[in-house]
């Protein structure tokens, strides 16, 4: 039995969007796939999600047109991973605005820090989701880096279809 109503035929575009994106795992999976972590074990490890839940979400996301399966070589063995479709890549501004909103309106946990969204084209931090607040260019995954100070590392957003580990 579904946990909520089916909004796929609703006239409201927000409800239809939530019908596809309303599960919190969906946006986190898209975030990781846009970062190039489209391998099943990488997703499972990074998200801390059970394999059964991840399998169901990935299948639903493929059926919804957010992800496509892509082959990659793993030690001479061909395996399948996931890459973002155009529909998923178009969620970059949504993810970035969620990050901006979260920094402004939620309490920072101990050990946390600012996440800088760097537009590689101009080299500046942006505070907007869709266009760079420094140069005005439209932001695309291939030109973004998210610097997470709490990890002391860069999470480069890489082109859809590239599987990093």
Automatic annotation (TrEMBL):
Q: Which PANTHER family match?
A: TRANSCRIPTIONAL REGULATOR, MARR FAMILY, TRANSCRIPTIONAL REGULATORY PROTEIN
Task: Tell me which SUPFAM superfamilies the record gives.
Answer: Winged helix' DNA-binding domain
Q: Which residues form a coiled coil?
A: none
Q: What is this protein called?
A: Winged helix-turn-helix transcriptional regulator
Please state every residue range assigned to the domain named HTH hxlR-type. 12-110
CDD domains cross-referenced by the UniProt entry: HTH_ARSR (cd00090)
The record's section on InterPro entries has: ArsR-like_HTH, HTH_HxlR, WH-like_DNA-bd_sf, WH_DNA-bd_sf
Recite the UniProt keywords alphabetically: DNA-binding, Transcription, Transcription regulation
From which residue to which does the signal peptide run? none
Keyword check for Metal-binding: no
Q: Which Pfam families does this entry report, sorted A to Z?
A: HxlR (PF01638)
């Amino acid at each position: 039995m579904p946990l909520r109503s089916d909004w796929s035929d609703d006239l409201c575009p927000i409800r239809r969007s939530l019908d596809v994106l309303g599960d919190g795992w969906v946006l986190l999976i898209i975030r990781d796939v846009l970062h190039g972590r489209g391998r099943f074990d990488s997703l499972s490890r990074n998200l801390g999600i059970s394999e059964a839940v991840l399998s169901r979400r990935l299948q639903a996301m493929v059926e919804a047109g957010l992800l496509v399966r892509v082959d990659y070589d793993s030690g001479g063995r061909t395996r399948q991973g996931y890459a973002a479709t155009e529909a998923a890549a178009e969620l970059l501004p949504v993810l970035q605005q969620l990050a901006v909103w979260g920094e402004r309106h939620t309490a920072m946990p101990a050990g946390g820090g600012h996440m800088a969204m760097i537009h590689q084209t101009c080299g500046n931090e942006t505070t907007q989701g869709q266009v760079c607040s420094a140069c005005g260019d439209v932001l695309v995954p291939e030109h973004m880096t998210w610097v997470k100070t709490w990890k002391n590392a860069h999470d480069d957003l890489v082109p859809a279809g590239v599987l990093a580990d």
